[in-house]
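Module 6 notes. Inverse folding takes a fixed backbone as the condition and produces residue identities as the prediction. Think of it as a translation problem where the source language is geometry and the target language is the twenty amino acids. Below is one complete input and output pair. Work through it position by position during the lab.
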């Protein structure tokens, strides 16, 4: 059911032109307006806590469905830290790659985008009853005061998908498409599985209806966030208010500002990563309790040299890549 549905997602895959990429890199933002000698930059969590408004009570006509069980975070093989190929199978795999000249950047898109980056998106707002919240989940549900519901988790997953997709769209075209598609396919297959297991929804028709709704939501979010990315912080903040805060009239503007800084921080870090480092899954979302400040040209060069030194030691056929280490 979902496989057919996810393949239908490919027509909406969006790509940034080279001129758009350059525009993004030079676009004014909160971070780039900060002075280098700043003394007291606040993290998103600190910004949100500056507000002294009373928390908003969320009233639901129907109480959100809560998980009745807990599905594996990833697949069983991915969850198992001891799961790996034998030395013999690894050698065979390396021989096949070398002999047949496989495009490893294309092959790598599955485990990186559909594994590493999918996990990064999923864990940000994941929450289960009677379990301690992660620090990032506390940021969304306690600091920002967002309602605890499955649909709210989806909106946060979509936000993090979009953040990653901005960087993916700056990759060479054929790899850009692969990385985006692998990530969105995995997100929707996981949503389908979680609705069936954790939420105990037994009707395939109902699950399919939710998936179509989430797909429509994703399309709208990508368009609105892209508009904010290519215009200004006011437009991006408005998109966050509509899509993450459900356009609530009671929203705390300081909370929207904190989320805006969080998003711009992630985009700044991604913009400083080389294609090679990002394509190999080296990016992790910056926690909301940390501050991202602009780096100097000298620091950029040091990071670039460190990246090149790291990849110079990766000489196996499976490590082959045409992705740039300079941009």
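Target side of the pair, the amino acids:
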């Amino acid at each position: 059911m979902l496989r057919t549905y996810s393949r239908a997602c490919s027509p909406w895959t969006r790509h940034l032109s080279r001129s758009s990429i350059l525009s993004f890199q030079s676009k004014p933002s909160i971070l780039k307006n900060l002075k280098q000698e700043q003394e007291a930059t606040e993290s998103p969590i600190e910004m949100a806590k500056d507000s002294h408004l009373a928390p908003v009570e969320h009233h639901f006509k129907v109480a959100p469905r809560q998980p009745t069980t807990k599905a594996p975070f990833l697949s069983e093989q991915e969850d198992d830290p001891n799961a790996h190929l034998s030395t013999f199978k690894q050698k065979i795999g390396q021989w096949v790659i070398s002999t047949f000249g496989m495009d490893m950047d294309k092959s790598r898109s599955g485990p990186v985008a559909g594994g590493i980056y999918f996990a990064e998106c999923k864990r940000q707002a994941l929450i289960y009853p009677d379990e301690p919240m992660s620090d990032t989940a506390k940021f969304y549900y306690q600091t920002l005061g967002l309602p605890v519901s499955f649909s709210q988790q989806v909106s946060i997953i979509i936000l993090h998908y979009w953040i990653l997709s901005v960087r993916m769209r700056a990759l060479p075209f054929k790899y850009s498409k692969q990385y985006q598609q692998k990530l969105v396919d995995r997100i929707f297959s996981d949503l389908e599985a979680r609705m069936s297991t954790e939420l105990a929804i037994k009707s395939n028709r109902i699950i399919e209806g939710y998936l179509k709704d989430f797909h429509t939501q994703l399309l709208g979010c990508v368009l609105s966030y892209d508009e904010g990315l290519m215009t200004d912080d006011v437009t991006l903040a408005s998109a966050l208010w509509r899509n993450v805060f459900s356009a609530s009239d009671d929203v705390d503007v300081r909370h929207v500002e904190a989320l805006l800084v969080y998003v711009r921080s992630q985009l700044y870090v991604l913009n400083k990563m080389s294609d090679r480092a990002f394509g190999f899954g080296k990016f992790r979302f910056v926690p909301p309790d940390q501050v991202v400040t602009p780096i100097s040209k000298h620091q950029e060069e040091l990071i670039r040299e460190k990246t090149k030194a790291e990849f110079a030691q990766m000489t196996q056929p499976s490590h082959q890549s045409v992705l740039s280490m300079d941009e």
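Reference fact for the lab report: The longest helix spans residues 204-230.
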